[in-house]
Each structure stands twice: as structure tokens, then as C-alpha cells.
Write a structure and sequence with these properties.
It comes from Candidatus Nanopelagicus hibericus. By secondary structure, the chain is α/β, with parallel strands linked by helices. 37% of the residues lie in helices and 22% in strands. Bound molecules: 2-keto-3-deoxygluconate (KDG). 2-keto-3-deoxygluconate binds next to helix 1 and helix 9.
Length: 313
């Protein structure tokens, strides 16, 4: 049976300090499951589409509980491999009273051993859309090779793909990110990056200029986000902007993935690209208004949020 989305990457257990807003003083933590690609898979599933997530998880309890969390969201994890390693994690403060500071426990993790042979052509050919990110390129060389392999396969098979630059500065330097990601960020249906990420990868944060350049590189829909501020985009050379809905932002982590997931779902459901991006921006704002990477992600059907919700937000 086919799926709407196939995506892969590293899922993490995120430990968020709950008694104080600093890892330096906290003694209590809440654990949630997250990770950029799995967040996108959950977004599509919440909107009533079929999403399949692949990764390598360790043979450990964290791996088991995270898989249970992802499956509880209706995401298909049947292709996942369990390997003799540990499942990655991230520790952070809540960000209620100060900036979010993160630490990773992921170098050498199970997911960092993902390799091209893990992604069979049939995983991609049975999907309508492939989503990948720069994070998988940063976690290991085999991760980078796997992203390149999957995007190439999608192109050969005529499956639409998206790529989110998603630079994680704790995983690699800006010069490494630029050298690796610039050649990958081309010929995809949807390219997403933050203003600062375009600056790092392409040396240019002038939205009109750099987004037009992305269209010329074969990225049909190129989007430049800037947190909760105006989002700039260019579709086949046509530049425009969207002002995201205003919400009380509680936890912005995960909102970019909700934007991406909401936009992909809209595109798959047949919305015009600008309307799909508007739906994405509503999803992103709602996720930022609640704690956790996907807690605030709205539900919907056939890839669409309800009319009521889109009018209300
Ligand atoms: O996009 C949200 C992610 O940043 C978060 O879930 C953790 O995947 C993550 C990462 O690599 O930082």
C-alpha cells in the first residue's frame, strides 16, 4: 500500500527541565519524542494523510518508548531498524524565562549509522512525497550520503521532494554546513530555510534575490522563514510574502517542522502552492503556542485543516 509521505532522519528523546528554566539547576525533566523529520511525519498524519518514518533506533528502552510515541500518532514505523547502539537524546530548558539552550547526546547514535542501502527504491516509489533535512547530513557522513541517495532516487522516480536546510550549529561549523548543503539544495519541489540559513549556505539573505536564485536551481517553491515574522517565498520566479497568524509563542521549537508538514499536506491535497504555505504558517503558529514539538499541531482530514480553524486563526 502506498503512502503520502516517506521521510527519514534521527528521532530524539527530548528531556525538558520542568522545575527550573535551566539545565544547570533543574532536577526534574519531562521527556517527549521529537526530531525534525518525525515532526513533519506527525504533522501529515494529524492532517489525515499517511506518513512513513524510517530511522535506526537503538535496542534500548528509549528507542522502544519513542517508537510507541510515533506510532500513537498514526505514523507508520514498520520499516525502522533496531541496531546495537543507543538512541539519541537532547537535553534543554523550557525557555519560559530565558533563551532555550540545548545539549545533544547523539554523536555515534543508532540513527547516525543510517546508510544509503537502508533506503530501498520501493520506499520512495510507493510514496507521493519525500522529505529530508540538513540535520541528517550533519549527523554523519553516511547520513549525508543517504540524503543525497534518497533525493537522487526521488528525482529518477519522479517523486516530489522537499529539503529543509535546518542547520544545527552544535553539530557542525557554518563552513561545513555551507559546503555540504549548497550542492544538495537544488531540484526539489519545496526548499525551506531560515533567513540566517540562506545566508550561511548561499552567502545571501536578500529574500527576493536568493529565492529567485533557488527557483533557477530547480527548486519550484523556495521559502525563507524568519521565526514568527513575515515569511518570504518565490514560486517559479513569482515573489510574495505571508504574515503568519499572531499567537502567544510559548515554545517555538518544532514550529518550523509544523510549517513544513502543513505545507506539504496542503500541496498533496491539491491546494494552490500559496494556499498550502498559508496552511503551513497556521500549523507553525499553533505549534509555537504550546509546549512540545507537535503538541499544538492541529488535526484535519485529507491533508487540510478545517475551514473553521483557518478562519479562527
Ligand atoms: O526542528 C525541531 C528539532 O530541532 C528538534 O526536534 C530536535 O531534530 C532536532 C534537532 O536535531 O535539533
Amino acid at each position: 500500500m502506498g503512502t503520502d509521505l516517506f521521510t527519514f532522519g534521527e528521532a530524539l528523546s527530548v528531556f525538558i527541565s520542568s522545575d527550573t528554566d535551566s539545565v544547570m539547576s533543574a532536577t526534574k525533566y519531562e521527556r517527549v519524542t521529537a526530531g525534525a523529520e518525525v515532526n513533519v511525519a506527525v504533522a501529515l498524519s494529524r492532517l489525515g494523510l499517511k506518513a512513513q518514518f524510517f530511522s535506526r533506533f537503538g535496542n534500548d528502552q528509549l528507542g522502544s518508548v519513542m517508537l510507541a510515541d510515533i506510532e500513537a500518532e498514526g505514523v507508520d514505523t514498520s520499516l525502522v531498524k533496531r541496531v546495537d547502539s543507543f538512541t539519541g537524546a537532547m537535553v534543554r530548558n523550557s525557555g519560559k524565562s530565558q533563551a532555550v539552550e540545548i545539549s545533544y547526546l547523539r554523536k555515534g547514535s543508532a540513527a547516525s549509522t543510517i546508510e544509503p542501502a537502508d533506503i530501498l527504491d520501493s520506499y520512495i516509489s510507493s510514496a507521493k512525497w519525500l522529505h529530508t533535512t540538513g540535520i541528517t547530513c550533519a549527523i554523519s557522513q553516511s547520513g549525508e550520503k543517504t540524503v543525497k541517495h534518497a533525493l537522487k532516487t526521488a528525482r529518477e522516480l519522479g517523486v516530489k521532494a522537499s529539503f529543509d536546510l535546518n542547520i544545527r550549529r552544535k553539530l557542525w561549523s557554518e563552513s561545513q554546513a555551507s559546503a555540504t548543503l549548497a550542492p544538495i539544495a537544488e531540484n526539489v519541489e519545496l526548499l525551506i530555510g531560515g533567513e540566517d540559513e540562506f545566508k550561511v549556505v548561499f552567502g545571501d539573505s536578500d529574500a527576493k534575490r536568493v529565492l529567485a536564485q533557488m527557483n533557477k536551481r530547480g527548486c519550484k517553491i523556495a521559502v525563507m522563514t524568519k521565526g514568527d515574522q513575515v515569511m518570504r517565498y518565490s514560486i517559479d520566479g513569482q515573489y510574495d510574502e505571508i504574515t503568519p497568524p499572531k499567537v502567544v509563542a510559548v515554545d517555538p521549537v518544532g514550529s518550523g517542522d509544523a510549517f513544513t508538514g502543513g505545507s506539504i499536506a496542503g500541496l498533496l491535497s491539491g491546494l494552490a502552492p500559496s494556499d498550502a504555505l498559508k496552511q503551513g504558517s497556521i500549523c507553525g503558529a499553533l505549534v509555537a503556542s504550546m509546549f512540545g514539538d507537535w503538541t499544538g499541531m492541529p488535526t484535519g482530514s485529507a491533508g487540510l485543516i478545517s475551514d473553521e480553524l483557518s478562519k479562527k486563526v
